[in-house]
Design goal:
It is a single chain. This protein is an alpha/beta fold and about 270 residues long. The protein has two domains: about 180 residues, Vaccinia Virus protein VP39 (Rossmann fold, 3-Layer(aba) Sandwich); about 60 residues, Single Sheet (N-terminal domain of TfIIb). It has eight helices and eleven strands. The strands form two sheets. It has a seven-stranded mixed beta sheet. It is globular, with a radius of gyration of 20 Å.
Length: about 270
């Protein structure tokens, strides 16, 4: 099986090219008025977590990349935020406590590369969600995302890196319908302010898109009920043919006790 994305290889430059913030108002709104600890999974360098902390939220943040967590810790050093950083793979999540609100932002569940492991992750998350708690899971819509997984190499953009350097990122994604995986790479060409190339990096990219119907089955198997699904971060109705995103709000319900067929003989 291909390897999960090794974010340690780009942790030191990740914030130079990932400046996405279009989803921050959504998460601020969804966490407004919640006073308990919020569990954020696959938190990276704190792109979502830090704005929430700045707004007064209490956070427990987990990620499997030591490098990304190291950048996160450096960014909040001396801030005295109410946050706990934990290195842990979401498929092996075992914190020994429950949360009333759990977030999985930036479509990160797809970075888990098999259906079984994705289901395992959702099952582990459900075990950490309190009854009637809310789990928000964001995903890209395969119907839209796979249109660009065509094997073509594209220049993503040019970014400003540290010391005034310039960084050009190129990407290639290719979908394999037999495996259900999208594989490819991101290349990073870093030049000094005079335009001379000083470094080049290559990051292998693999992810597994999840269709709406599949995610619904995974959630149900883990005692999670879909309370709402949006097609973007502005609460638009999800449309499978046209929406770029699938933003799920899920609730955990108490399991109903069912009387065994031989109940009388068990007395």
């Amino acid at each position: 099986m291909p390897s999960p994305i090794q974010f340690d290889q780009v942790a030191d430059i990740y914030d130079d090219y990932v400046g996405t913030n279009f989803d921050i108002p959504f998460f601020l709104n969804e966490t407004e008025g919640y006073n308990g600890e919020i569990l954020e999974l696959m938190c990276g360098t704190g792109r979502v977590s830090i704005p929430l902390l700045e707004a007064g939220r209490k956070m427990v943040c987990a990620d499997y990349s030591l490098g990304m967590l190291g950048v996160f810790e450096k960014k909040i050093r001396g801030k005295n935020y109410p946050v706990e950083l934990i290195r842990m793979d979401v498929t092996e999540l075992n914190l020994g406590r429950e949360f009333g609100l759990i977030l999985l932002p930036f479509h990160s569940l797809s970075e888990i590369l098999s259906a079984d492991l994705q289901a395992k992750a959702i099952g582990a998350i459900s075990k950490h969600l309190s009854i009637d708690g809310t789990f928000i899971c964001t995903l890209q819509n395969p119907a839209i995302r796979l249109k660009s997984a065509d094997g073509a190499t594209r220049v993503l953009d040019e970014f400003t890196a540290g010391n005034g350097n310039k960084m050009i990122i190129s990407v290639m994604n290719l979908y394999n319908p037999e495996t259900g995986l999208v594989s490819g790479f991101q290349s990073y060409e870093i030049s000094d302010p005079e335009g001379e190339q000083i470094e080049k990096r290559y990051l292998e990219i693999n992810f597994r898109p999840i269709a709406y119907s599949e995610f619904k089955k995974i959630a149900a198997a883990s005692n999670l009920e879909i309370a709402a699904v949006y097609g973007d971060y502005f609460y638009s109705v999800f449309k499978e043919e046209t929406s770029s995103f699938m933003i799920f709000k899920l609730k955990k319900k108490a399991r109903l006790w069912t009387k065994p067929e031989n109940y009388s003989s068990l007395k």
